[in-house]
Amino acid sequence: MKTPANLQRRSFMSQGTALTATVAIAPGVMLYDYARARPAGEAASSAVRWGMLIDTTRCATGCDACVKACNRENGLSGETRPTDSQWMRKVDLVQEGTGRKISLPMMCQHCADPPCVDVCPTAASFKRADGIVLVDKHRCIGCRYCMMACPYKARSFVHEPVTDHSGHTPRGQGTVESCTLCVHRVDQGQSPACVEACAGEGKEAILFGNLNDPNSPISRRLHEVSSVKLRDDLGLNTGISFVGL
Amino acid sequence: MALLFYLAALVFALGLAYRLAIYARTPAPLKIPTTPAPTTQRGVVWRMFREVVFFESLFKGNLWTWAFGMAFHLGLALETVRHLRYFFSSVPEWVTLVQPFGLYGGMLMVVGLGGLWGRRILVPRIRYISTPSDHLMLVLLLTIGFSGLTMKYLVRPDILAVKEFILGLLRFDVQPFPAGFPVFIHLSMVALLLLIFPFSKLLHAPGVFFSPTRNQVDDSREHRHIVAWATSMESEKPHG
Amino acid sequence: MKIRRILLLLVLGLVFWAGGGGYGAWAGVPIPDLDIGQGGHCVADPLYMRLNHMNLLIHQRDQTVRQGIRGGPYSLAVCVDCHASKVNHSVLGTSRNFCQGCHEYVSVRIDCFECHSSEPRNTKAMITGQSRVVKESLK
Lengths: 245, 240, 139
Fold this sequence. Notes:
The structure holds three protein chains of three kinds.
Chain A: H1 7-34, E1 50-55, H2 65-74, E2 89-94, E3 101-106, H3 115-119, E4 125-127, E5 133-135, H4 145-149, E6 156-157, E7 176-177, H5 183-186, H6 193-200, E8 206-210, H7 217-224, E9 240-243
Parallel strand pairs in A: 1-9
Antiparallel strand pairs in A: 1-8, 2-3, 4-5, 6-7
Helix pairs in contact in A: 2-6
Chain B: H1 2-25, H2 41-54, H3 56-61, H4 63-83, H5 93-122, H6 124-129, H7 132-153, H8 159-170, H9 181-196, H10 204-207, H11 212-215
Helix pairs in contact in B: 1-9, 4-5, 5-7, 7-9
Chain C: H1 2-20, H2 46-67, H3 76-83, H4 98-105, H5 112-115, H6 124-138
């Protein structure tokens, strides 16, 4: 992961944070406006590209409200054994030398050129027109190539029969799954569960919106502050960007 | 339609019983097993098993015919088990397990029949010796196979009504015949097949068990048949 | 010859047993006695649904999953909402339940509920919202 190159840039970022603090209050309201529910019968359009901007300077070590919200929303157990599904994880980093601590949520980065889609032998892994990378579990044969291909370790395999279907996401044994960007909520005009939970904690570290709309809060923010995409050297053009790394 | 089925079943059962009675009573005065033949009764059972299950002699005779014949018979067997679901009011587990394989059975059956019919049409020598009834059997079975696959993949029938109809037949509580052209074709062809079974070459099914070249023990030396008047001239004691 | 006669009897026995299996022989045709739950007007003619529900579901499911088209009339959740039994609040469970009853009768496997919920969505707002969409799309 990249670390800030010099002091100058770091001071620029703190300015950026201050600047966006004002914007970030508004997006809570404005977001709803931008992400209006698509009318019934209308397909997702490539005029939209959903993305997130995660501000690590607002993300607190020890806070896992987003992870809990994700688990609750999607019916995940929340266990962290190797065989348990984890769609979202909290990662704590310490910068070598300076000892600076960073905490951030990690999940599917919703690449524009997703390697998981490239390797899928059944075309179960796919990218929706609006940029959300999903698994069509009706087609998934559970080969797990996508899990190997993903540089972010974002995908999980369901090892055991799912008995609790209370979540909003259908899940089943023998298929691979990952963050859906809460596609069911997004299609209804809501923001993903983690975004809502983070705002509920008063942190508002995750900004969600349409990257293709230059006037959306997320686009304007990306225009203003320095952000990085993880492993940008791979050229995957992820939909998730980070501030403060 | 129900009447047709009862008639067909009756003709099938009585005709078959009549045929079997004839087969059973037909004398086989000479030991003519095709050699090399087993020399014990157990050996004959084993040989018959290989013949019935693996079509051994056909395998040695003509590989192509064997392959298509095998495909057809295996497919028919699987498909028959799949169809048992219409005959049990509560379907046993093993029939449920076979369902997807029965589907492959149906395709295999059609492929096998296609091959066998192709043989009758394309091989001049076979075409020359083929009678209309040979073609009829294949066409009948192919029609049954195709109409079945049509119902699976193109025009679905109301299988609930199909099952009610069949269970109704079994219980003498006649139910309305299921709607749909493919069902009509499928079931009436099956009835026709049942009707002509006792008069057709399809009798090779029970007939193979009566085949003297297959069901005889090669023990003409060990168990000689000696007529009564000749016993006095024998040095050996006659066996039973 | 004796063996053959025994075999014949066995086969006959099997046929009779098959015909009578489960419900007591010759007691008339057993037809699944279904608990249709809430029932009412289905999204299409019941006979049409009986023959085509699987195609309708698969078609709409592919559109929804892959293209994100939502609110179509033929969703599994809508089936379940209307047809879950009022006894056990599910379309599965016993031979009387809507989905299981028929599928068991004709021995067709249902994969749906390995992933999807067999119980109605309990959020009332969601149900009314969905059925409104259904009505609109049927017009």
